[in-house]
């Protein structure tokens, strides 16, 4: 899985591409922790743009949960956007859409 | 093409082998790609459960996976020769809990139960057998 981190209007936008499975989760967690630490310095929002994320399993959900906790602890805004249908289904079944803000697209996430 | 079968050692490094096996079955059977993710997820969750919990006294279980087309659906069977363990007895996670009280333990099996139509466990001889079936309707 490839992960890009962009700075857009002051926000850190993390863009995971491909499959977030058990094998990819540890690397993604490290990159996300780094992005959150950087955002924390600036008090910047963190957005995960999932437009290129094709698949997520419970190992990936765990990373999103840890990120939600860490951003809450640091009092940073945290949201996801642009979930593909297969990924959205996993988030909804897990109840994660009730504990993490999910927006339709990046513009909506940045505006919020 | 009705059924396919493969086997791997229960090592997390073998997950891509199983995912590829599933994807090859899917394209050979000309099934809609959009309907594959629940099976990919179920295969990963059950396999990783065996990887994480199935080893005992240095014995690493062997895992066999079969995929079969039948009656408008797909049946996936995952067997391992680890100690008896029925993942369907795992506690059901509270998916309505607030952020601070969320646990990820048990979430994988919870997802499998909700994404598949039928999930059954049996101890067959020296093997755990988990059989999952889902109809293929978009």
Summarize the structure.
Chain A has 112 residues and is α/β, with parallel strands linked by helices. Chain A has helices at 22-42, 58-73, 85-93, 106-111; strands spanning 2-8, 11-20, 46-49, 53-56, 78-81, 101-103.
Architecture blueprint of SSEs:
The complex is a heterodimer of chains A (112) and B (138).
Chain A: E1 2-8, E2 11-20, H1 22-42, E3 46-49, E4 53-56, H2 58-73, E5 78-81, H3 85-93, E6 101-103, H4 106-111
Helix pairs in contact in A: 1-2
Chain B: E1 3-9, H1 15-28, H2 37-53, E2 62-70, E3 73-80, H3 107-115, E4 118-124, E5 127-135
Antiparallel strand pairs in B: 1-2, 2-3, 3-5, 4-5
Helix pairs in contact in B: 1-2, 2-3
Q: What does this protein look like?
A:
The complex is a heterodimer of chains A (112) and B (138). Chain A is of the alpha/beta class and 112 residues long. Helices cover 46% and strands 29% of the residues of chain A. Chain A has a single domain (2-111), classed as 2-Layer Sandwich (Transcription Regulator spoIIAA). In chain A, strands 1, 2, 3, 4, 5 and 6 form a six-stranded mixed beta sheet that branches. In chain A, strand 5 (78-81), helix 3 (85-93) and strand 6 form a beta-alpha-beta unit. The N and C termini of chain A lie far apart (28 Å). Chain B is of the alpha+beta class. Chain B has a single domain, classed as Histidine kinase-like ATPase, C-terminal domain (Heat Shock Protein 90). Chain B contains three helices and five strands, in the order βααββαββ. Chain B has helices spanning 15-28, 37-53, 107-115; strands at 3-9, 62-70, 73-80, 118-124, 127-135. In chain B, a hairpin with a 2-residue loop joins strand 4 and strand 5 (127-135). The two termini of chain B are 22 Å apart. Chain A binds chain B through residues 19, 21-23, 55, 57-59, 61-62, 65, 68-69, 72, 85-86, 89-90, 93-95, 98-100, and chain B through 12-13, 15-16, 19, 34, 37, 40-41, 44-45, 48, 95-100, 102, 104, 107-108, 110-111, 114-115.
């Amino acid at each position: 899985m490839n992960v890009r981190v962009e700075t857009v209007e002051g926000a850190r936008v993390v863009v995971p591409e491909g499959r977030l499975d058990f094998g990819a989760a540890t690397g993604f967690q490290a990159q996300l922790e780094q992005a959150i630490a950087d955002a924390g310095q600036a008090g910047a929002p963190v957005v995960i743009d999932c437009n290129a994320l094709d698949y997520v399993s419970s190992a990936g959900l765990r990373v999103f949960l840890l990120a939600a906790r860490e951003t809450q602890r640091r009092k940073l805004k945290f949201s996801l956007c642009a979930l593909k249908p297969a990924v959205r289904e996993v988030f909804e079944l897990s109840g994660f859409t009730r504990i993490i803000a999910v927006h339709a697209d990046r513009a909506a996430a940045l505006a919020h | 093409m009705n059924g396919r079968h493969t086997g791997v050692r229960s090592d997390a490094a073998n997950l891509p082998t199983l995912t590829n096996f599933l994807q090859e079955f899917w394209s050979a059977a000309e099934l809609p790609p959009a309907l594959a993710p629940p099976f990919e997820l179920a295969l990963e969750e059950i396999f990783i459960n065996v990887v994480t919990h199935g080893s005992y006294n240095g014995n690493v279980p062997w895992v066999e996976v079969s995929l079969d087309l039948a009656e408008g659906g797909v049946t996936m069977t995952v067997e391992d020769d680890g100690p008896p363990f029925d993942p369907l007895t795992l506690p059901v996670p509270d998916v309505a809990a607030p952020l601070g009280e969320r646990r990820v333990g048990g979430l994988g099996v919870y997802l499998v139960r909700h994404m598949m139509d039928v999930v059954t466990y049996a101890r067959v001889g020296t093997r755990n057998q988990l059989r999952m079936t889902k109809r293929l309707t978009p």
